[in-house]
């Protein structure tokens, strides 16, 4: 009798586990098409970047995503996977980005340069928020523009998108402006440096503190020449380090800034980590199935991971080959996430945005460039 009871219990348990595994497998299948196209596109973007380093893999991936969406190559079966890629993979990529930061290299820049970095980030964001309010630009878009232009371009926009409840049209607009003005700076900055006759150290600090994307900094510094690339990149990475405290502060003071913090959904999403946001951000979501919400942590987990990665990189326990491999994975994940974000961009909707964000982007670019130049000269 005992043996029969044990056998029945085992049979029921095995059947339950098998059923759950079958359901989990079927559930996962809906994400495979999106994962596959994002992976393939990221590989292509990274490959092109390895051949032409001045072409950022992240920006290429965004462009590919925009093309796929707007020439109607995107299939509905891809949306669930791309939604996961643009959120989950993005956060993992930002954590791995921390391994690029060696805090001792940043400390060697000196207090003057570090103060310049802080001023660039702070004044860039404050200018964008206040001027955006005066111009009637949405608080979310103004904040995204300020972060993208002041910290680290598209990665900062995407990172902030993971911490606040941002409309994806605002995200797409901010990224597009980063691409536009950052690309322009690749040519404008070297022309100004060479035309005015700025010395090498000042030029390196200025370009690193003024240009939006890391790849754009490398491109501009390479055109300028004079061995300023390393200085420019280290200064730029110091700005990247500001991503963590800025996200934390925005999370704390979101209401005062006129934005909504990202909301963590119910326990259902903890049990089923791929169940949230199964459509691309441009599609309206029906949240009727979510019965409880909770306030997000004051410091998002991926920000803590970013800081932890920087500390580990600084400790020197990860060999150079390991850091190189991590950078490849990080670039791949961010490129895939950027493709997912690009697939959420509808050009027809962007045309409705108007010229105000463009003017705001120009104003913030000028403020960032001027503050960076004053700091570079004085440091």
From TrEMBL:
Keyword presence, Transmembrane helix: yes
An example Gene Ontology CC term for this record: plasma membrane
A Pfam match: Cons_hypoth698
Keywords: Cell membrane, Membrane, Transmembrane, Transmembrane helix
Protein topology in the membrane: Multi-pass membrane protein
TM ranges: 38-68, 89-107, 113-132, 141-160, 172-198, 210-228, 240-259, 298-318, 324-345, 357-378
Cellular compartments annotated: Cell membrane
Protein family membership: Belongs to the UPF0324 family.
PANTHER family with a match to the protein in the record: INNER MEMBRANE PROTEIN YEIH-RELATED, UPF0324 INNER MEMBRANE PROTEIN YEIH
The name this protein goes by in its record: Putative sulfate exporter family transporter
Organism: Arcanobacterium bovis
Record lineage: Bacteria, Bacillati, Actinomycetota, Actinomycetes, Actinomycetales
């Amino acid at each position: 009798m005992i043996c029969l009871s044990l056998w029945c219990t085992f049979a029921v348990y095995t059947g339950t586990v098998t059923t759950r595994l079958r359901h989990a497998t079927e559930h996962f299948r809906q994400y495979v098409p999106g994962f596959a196209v994002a992976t393939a596109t990221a590989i292509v973007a990274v490959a092109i970047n390895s051949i032409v380093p001045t072409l950022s893999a992240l920006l290429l991936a965004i462009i590919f995503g925009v093309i796929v969406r707007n020439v109607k190559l995107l299939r509905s079966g891809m949306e669930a996977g791309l939604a996961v890629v643009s959120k989950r993979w993005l956060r993992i990529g930002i954590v791995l980005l921390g391994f690029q930061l060696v805090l001792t290299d940043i400390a060697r820049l000196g207090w003057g340069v570090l103060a310049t970095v802080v001023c660039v980030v702070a004044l860039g964001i404050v200018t964008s928020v206040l001027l955006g309010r005066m111009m009637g630009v949405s608080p979310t878009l103004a904040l995204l523009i300020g972060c993208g232009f002041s910290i680290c371009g598209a990665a900062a926009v995407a990172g902030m998108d993971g911490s606040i409840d941002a409309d994806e049209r605002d995200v797409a607009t901010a990224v597009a402006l980063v691409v536009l003005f950052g690309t322009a700076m690749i040519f404008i900055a070297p022309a100004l440096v060479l035309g005015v006759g700025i010395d090498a150290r000042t030029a390196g600090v200025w370009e690193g503190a003024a240009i939006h994307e890391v790849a754009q900094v490398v491109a501009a510094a390479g055109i300028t020449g004079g061995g300023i690339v390393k200085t420019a990149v280290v200064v730029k990475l110091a700005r990247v380090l500001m991503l963590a405290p800025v996200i934390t502060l925005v999370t704390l003071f979101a209401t005062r800034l006129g934005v909504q913090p990202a909301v963590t959904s119910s326990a259902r999403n903890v049990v089923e980590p791929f169940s949230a946001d199964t459509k691309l951000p441009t599609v309206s979501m029906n949240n009727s199935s979510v019965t409880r919400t909770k306030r997000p942590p004051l410091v998002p987990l991926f920000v803590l991971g970013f800081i932890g990665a920087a500390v580990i990189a600084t400790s020197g326990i990860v060999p150079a080959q390991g850091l190189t491999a991590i950078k490849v994975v990080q670039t791949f994940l961010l490129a895939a996430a950027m493709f997912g974000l690009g697939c959420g961009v509808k050009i027809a909707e962007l045309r409705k945005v108007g010229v105000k964000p463009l003017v705001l982007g120009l104003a913030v670019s000028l403020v960032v460039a001027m503050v960076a130049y004053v700091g570079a000269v004085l440091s």
